[in-house]
């Protein structure tokens, strides 16, 4: 097994559970695990996520936590849907805005939030 800067990083594999944690959020919220995810994000995970995960109106959990400036992250919490925040804060380009409007992604996210509150 290789070690060092050229070694394979399993969290960059889109099929791994570690990759899914960077995209959808951690399984364990302990400070040590969050620190580990931050290190993985900066050590190749960010590039892997940008290459293999893209969904209009959504951003990876690690992007919000580790790359998005704190001011914008706090402002995003005021919006009801993630897509609304992405558009309002200027993180979406014209193509993504058009796709969000055409597919009704904001309405879908609001419906998901209502279902989650009912549980």
Keywords:
2 domains, 7 helices, mainly alpha, 0% strand
Question: What structural category arises from helix and sheet content?
Answer: mainly alpha
Largest sheet: none
Radius of gyration: 16 Å
For the secondary structure, the number of strands is 0
User: What number of structural domains do the residues give?
Assistant: 2
Distinct helical segment count: 7
Strand and helix order:
HHHHHHH
Task: Summarize the structure in short.
By secondary structure, the chain is mostly helical.
Describe this structure as you would to a colleague:
The chain is built from seven helices and no strands. The chain is an all-alpha fold and about 120 residues long. The chain folds into two domains: about 70 residues, no CATH class; about 50 residues, no CATH class. α1 packs across α2.
């Amino acid at each position: 097994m290789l070690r060092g800067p050229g070694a394979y990083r399993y969290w960059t594999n889109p099929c791994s559970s570690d990759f899914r944690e960077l995209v959808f959020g951690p399984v364990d919220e302990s400070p040590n695990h969050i620190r580990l995810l931050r290190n993985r994000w900066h050590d190749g995970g960010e590039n892997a996520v940008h290459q293999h995960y893209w969904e209009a109106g959504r951003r990876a959990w690690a992007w919000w936590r580790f790359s998005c400036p704190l001011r914008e992250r706090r402002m995003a919490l005021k919006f009801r849907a993630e897509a609304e925040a992405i558009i309002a804060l200027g993180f979406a380009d014209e193509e993504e805005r058009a796709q969000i409007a055409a597919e009704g992604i904001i309405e879908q996210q609001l419906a998901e939030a209502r279902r989650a509150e009912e549980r």
